[in-house]
Amino acid sequence: MGWQRPAEPTIPTVWYTFQAPDPDNGDQLVTYRVEDLTEDRYDDMIQHYTDNFVDDEPFCENKQISKDELSLAEIVGFWRWCFEKRMTVVCYKEGSSYEILRGIYLGIPSGIH
Question: How far is the C-alpha of 84 from the C-alpha of 69, rounded, in Å?
Answer without folding.
Answer: 23
